Amino acid sequence: MLAAAESALRPQLPEGSSLSLVQSTAEDFTPPAGWQAELVTICRAFHWLDQAAVLTLLDEQVAPDGVVAIFGDNSFWVAGSPWKEAVRDVVKSFLGEERRAGAGTFQHHNRPYSEIMEESPFNEVEEVRVPVHRTWTAESILGYLYSTSFAAPHLFGDRLKEFEAAVKNRLTDFSASDIFPEENEFLIRLGRRGRK
Fold it and tell me: 189 - beta bridge partners?
């Protein structure tokens, strides 16, 4: 992912700009001395973090008028369209009914992220919803699935090729042209420092 970020970001930088990409957990990240972020984004990963600890650490790492943005959209697991439901059913047929996550099964967070943020230094929270239209192909669907914890490649063991074939075969029921439209929505929670 760092290599992908490098190749996407480097050409976009103005002359003389610098770019540093660091591999670290959010809990262990230490910024360069004297540097503070204007914006920190956490997308589809907040549920993996020690949420209160990370928000507390960010209080030291984010500029006084900076923003923490926590956002995500609906995963394929919650479906929302017939072709996504079919893909989820194929995943279940290979890995079981329960949604995988890491070494166990997925446990949905029991509190809204906005509520967690309101208990942090970034306690002025604004929610913004952004509709998203995407167009997928069988290959991009598989790429997405492999980036998730519920369908990571290692979970399939020696059945990975069989899984790929099953997904592609099932998708032919929904498109002869290998085009799969998706209507989704990002929920963005913007946290700023406010009342203490």
Answer: 70, 127
- Would residue 87 count as lying in a domain? yes
pLDDT score at 44: 84
Instruction: Supply the CATH number for residue 51's domain.
Output: 3.40.50.150
CA distance linking residue 54 with residue 113, whole number of Å = 13
Residue 105 lies in a domain: yes
Q: What is the dihedral of CA 19, 120, 50, 104, to 10 degrees?
A: -110
136 or 98, which is more confident: 136
Task: Tell me the CA end-to-end span of the chain in Å, nearest whole number.
Answer: 37
Output the CA angle 149-105-84, nearest 5 degrees: 55
* Rounded distance between C-alpha atoms, residue 110 and residue 119, angstroms: 15
Is residue 21 in some structural domain?
no
pLDDT in tens, 115-165: 999 999 999 999 999 999 999 999 999 999 998 888 999 999 999 999 999
Q: Decide if 25 contacts 53 (C-beta within 8 A).
A: no
**Across-strand partners of 105?**
100
Backbone angles phi, psi at 64, to 5 degrees: -55, -35
